[in-house]
C-alpha cells in the first residue's frame, strides 16, 4: 500500500475536523494538529506495516486526542518484524475482527504520552530500568545494556529516527507484546476454551426397516446426519416419503421445503426446464422427498435435463410404474457439486464416478470440449447451463440430455456349430431287391447304386 496515500488521507481528515472560525480557541485538539505532526510523519514513513495496523485498529481519533494533549513517543517495529518474523497464528489472532481490542492495546503499548529522546534514556551504568505508562495503561520499561538502548525486550535500532514538534519515533527490532494481549491469545489457544466431544459408537441401523434401532443422539446444527442418505430415503418410489429418520427428530436444522420450492421457482424463471419441474411436483413426490432430505441435513446436486431433452422421452419410457422416479433418481447426486468443482475433478482425475440415488448405478463424468460430459456413448449429456441454482445445500446443473444407466451385458454365449455328418443315401426297397438279384447272378458290378 502506498505510504503517501496515508498521509494525504490523514491530512484530509484533519482538515475536515478544523473549525470554521480560524480564531477558535487554541486548546481545540484538531486545530493543534498540522502536516508537521508526528502522526502524519508515522503514516507517511517507511514503517508501513505499523501504519496499516493503526488504520485497521481504528486508532486515528484516539491518537489525535493524545497528540493534542501532550507529546508522544512511538516505538515503531521494523516492517520485517510484522511481516515475516511474526507468528502466523498470532497475526491471525490480531487481525480477527473479534479481537479488535487486543490489537488496539498492542499498538498503544508502543506509545508513551511523553517525549523521550535518546539523551533522556537511562544510563547503562544504572542497571535499573525506568518504567513509563503507555497509552494502553500498561508499564513499559526502558533500559540500556552494553551501549544498546532497550525497550522492554526489544533493542532500539534507530534512535530519534523521526523528530517532530509534538512527538518522536524510535525504530525497534521487534514487536512489543503486552501481558494482557499475550494472556488473551493464550486463553484462546488454551484447551480450556475448546469444547471436547465424547466419542460415541456409530448408530445401529435395522437392515429390515432401514431405521435406527436406538434414537440418534442430537447433532449440532449443520452437522452430518446420522444415517446415510440411502437409508433416509423413502422405501419405494411409488410410496409417500418415509418419516424423517435423520438427526434431531422434528427439530430440523434447515428448511428443506422452502429451499426446494425456491430452486423449482428458479427453474421456472430461468426457462427451458418446465418439464423437469412438472415431473418433480406433479407426476412424482420427489419434490417433497428432496425437501425432507435437505431438512435433515443432506445435500443434493440435481443434473437437470432441459425441455428439449425431456421431449425425446417416449411414452413407453414414462408409462411403466415408478419409471419417472427411477429416471430422476439417476439424476440426483448425494453430494454438493458446482460447475467449478466438477470441472476441476474431471480435469484432474480424467473420469469421475458419482453416486446417484438410484442404487447401485453411478453416473460417469469426464472432460469434453472444455466442459463436463456425463454418461458415455450416444446416451451422454453435456453440462449446458451451469449453476442454475446453488445455495450450499442444493445445486442444480442444467444438462442437454436425459441420462440412463448402462445396461449390464447379459448376452448368452453362442452354441458351438454341430459337426456335419455325411450319410450315405438310403436305397428304396425295389432297388434293394434288384441289387440282391444281380448279386445272385454275378452282375452287380455294373450298377454303382448297388455298392
UniProtKB/TrEMBL annotation:
InterPro entries: FAS1_dom_sf, FAS1_domain, FLA15/16/17/18
SMART domains: FAS1
Gene3D superfamilies: FAS1 domain
Signal sequence annotation: 1-17
Cellular compartments per GO CC: extracellular region
Superkingdom of the source species: Eukaryota
Alphabetical UniProt keywords: Glycoprotein, Proteoglycan, Repeat, Secreted, Signal
Record-linked SUPFAM superfamilies: FAS1 domain (SSF82153)
Designated name of the protein: Fasciclin-like arabinogalactan protein 17
Organism: Salvia divinorum (Maria pastora)
Gene field: FLA17
Amino acid at each position: 500500500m502506498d505510504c503517501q496515500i496515508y498521509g494525504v488521507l490523514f491530512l484530509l481528515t484533519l482538515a475536515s475536523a478544523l473549525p470554521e472560525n480560524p480564531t477558535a480557541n487554541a486548546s481545540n485538539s484538531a486545530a493543534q494538529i498540522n502536516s508537521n505532526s508526528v502522526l502524519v510523519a508515522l503514516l507517511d514513513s517507511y514503517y508501513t506495516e505499523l501504519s496499516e495496523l493503526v488504520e485497521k485498529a481504528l486508532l486515528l481519533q484516539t491518537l489525535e486526542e493524545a497528540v493534542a494533549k501532550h507529546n508522544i513517543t512511538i516505538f515503531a517495529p521494523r516492517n520485517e518484524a510484522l511481516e515475516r518474523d511474526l507468528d502466523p497464528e498470532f497475526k491471525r489472532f490480531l487481525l480477527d475482527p473479534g479481537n479488535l481490542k487486543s490489537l488496539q492495546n498492542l499498538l498503544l503499548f508502543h506509545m508513551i504520552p511523553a517525549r523521550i529522546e535518546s539523551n533522556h534514556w537511562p544510563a547503562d551504568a544504572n542497571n535499573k530500568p525506568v518504567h513509563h505508562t503507555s497509552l494502553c495503561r500498561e508499564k513499559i520499561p526502558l533500559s540500556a545494556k552494553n551501549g544498546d538502548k532497550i525497550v522492554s525486550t526489544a533493542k532500539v535500532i534507530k534512535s530519534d529516527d523521526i523528530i517532530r514538534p509534538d512527538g518522536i519515533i524510535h525504530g525497534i527490532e521487534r514487536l512489543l507484546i503486552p501481558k494482557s494481549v499475550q494472556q488473551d491469545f493464550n486463553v484462546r489457544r488454551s484447551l480450556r476454551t475448546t469444547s471436547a466431544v465424547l466419542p460415541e459408537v456409530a448408530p445401529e441401523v435395522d437392515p429390515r426397516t432401514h431405521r435406527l434401532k436406538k434414537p440418534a443422539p442430537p447433532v449440532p446444527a449443520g452437522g452430518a446426519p446420522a444415517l446415510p442418505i440411502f437409508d433416509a430415503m423413502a422405501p419405494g418410489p411409488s410410496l409417500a416419503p418415509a418419516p424423517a429418520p435423520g438427526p434431531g427428530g422434528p427439530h430440523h436444522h434447515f428448511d428443506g421445503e422452502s429451499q426446494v420450492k425456491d430452486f423449482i421457482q428458479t427453474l421456472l424463471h430461468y426457462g427451458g426446464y418446465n418439464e423437469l419441474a412438472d415431473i418433480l411436483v406433479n407426476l412424482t413426490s420427489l419434490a417433497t422427498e428432496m425437501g425432507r432430505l435437505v431438512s435433515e441435513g443432506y445435500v443434493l446436486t440435481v443434473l437437470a435435463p432441459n425441455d428439449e431433452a425431456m421431449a425425446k422421452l417416449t411414452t413407453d419410457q414414462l408409462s411403466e410404474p415408478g419409471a419417472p422416479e427411477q429416471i430422476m433418481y439417476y439424476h440426483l447426486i448425494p453430494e454438493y457439486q458446482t460447475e467449478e468443482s466438477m470441472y476441476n475433478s474431471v480435469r484432474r482425475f480424467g473420469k469421475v464416478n458419482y453416486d446417484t440415488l438410484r442404487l447401485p448405478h453411478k453416473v460417469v463424468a469426464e472432460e469434453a470440449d472444455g466442459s463436463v460430459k456425463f454418461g458415455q456413448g450416444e446416451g451422454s449429456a453435456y453440462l449446458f447451463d451451469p449453476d442454475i441454482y446453488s445455495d450450499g445445500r442444493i445445486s442444480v446443473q442444467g444438462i442437454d440430455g436425459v441420462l440412463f444407466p448402462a445396461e449390464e451385458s447379459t448376452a448368452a454365449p453362442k452354441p458351438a456349430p454341430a459337426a456335419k455328418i455325411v450319410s450315405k443315401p438310403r436305397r428304396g426297397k425295389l432297388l434293394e431287391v434288384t441289387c440282391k438279384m444281380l448279386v445272385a447272378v454275378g452282375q452287380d458290378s455294373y450298377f454303382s447304386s448297388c455298392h
